[in-house]
Amino acid sequence: MAFERNSVTTAIIQNCRRLLHDSNLLLMSGGSPGAAVSLAVLAFEEIGKAQHYELSIEREKKTIGWHQYRQILSCYVLFLSLMEKYGVQLPKLSPSTRATVEARWGQLKKAEEIVSAPVPQEFYEETFPQMQEQLQRLSEDQKIVSSVELRWIRKIFEAALTGEMERTRQRGMYVDIADGKISSDPAGVSREVAYFWLRVSERALRLLEFGDFEGPYGDLAALLEALPKPLPERAELIRTLNDALSKLKDDAAATAPRT
Predict the structure, then answer these.
(1) What residue ranges do the domains of the chain occupy?
(2) 33, 42, 118, 191: which has the fewest C-beta neighbours closer than 10 Å?
């Protein structure tokens, strides 16, 4: 059962359902992958809007644009929910390290500047041991699945921080021209890219609507969690996953719309 929601969040959830339904319909019916990916990223952004509203976060006027801000916020909540899944607490910084981090990043306003600024060594020295200690408490199976899920979220986070997610959204809708030549065309968006962002947004929506942080993050993690436990040794695990991925690919090819 969904949590009780105020009317604003409820309206956003309903809109996200509509956007993702239409995105999925486009992919399944042989429609435009470009339009499908734009709808999926837009839904992800809408989820960030709802989280901004629910968490009552103040945003400075001179920061990154609203589109990218909401995408990053949605990524951040995904990351926090993954930490919640494994009972991992965010590292605590000492006052001196916090001051160092603030001096390094406090005056930066653009996401590109934040990403390119080197991370202070003091930050690594304090946070890594704390995270490592907590991760060591996980079972061997949990370590494997969580590492896959962290890479999945990192990929999404990097796309949001660098502006690639926003460019993907626009790439699905617009023909861009540079020096009199076409530099980007929605017809060039692949079904695989659209499928990826559709699944990302569906995962984020389950988190917003149901508080579902226990489920798998990404298709590969879903495959791992579906396997019998304990998971096989590395070589056998890779063979098992490759077989499963091949079957999924064959199934997708068999059900793909003919154009």
Answers:
(1) 7-86+138-219
(2) 118
* Model confidence, pTM: 0.81
Please state, in angstroms and rounded to a whole number, the distance separating the CA atoms of residues 183 and 76.
31
In the block, residue with structure tokens 């319909």: 25
Q: Which residues pair with 175 in a beta bridge?
A: none
pLDDT bracket for residue 84 (50, 70, 90)? very high
3-class secondary structure, 93: coil
For the chain, report the end-to-end CA distance as a whole number of angstroms: 39
Tokens of 43: 């839904």
Of 80, 86, 96, 91, the closest CA to residue 130 belongs to 91
Rounded to whole angstroms, the Cα distance separating 92 from 94 reads: 7
- What angle (nearest 5°) sits at the alpha carbon of residue 143, between those of residues 233 and 91? 160
Sign of CA dihedral 90, 91, 94, 95: negative
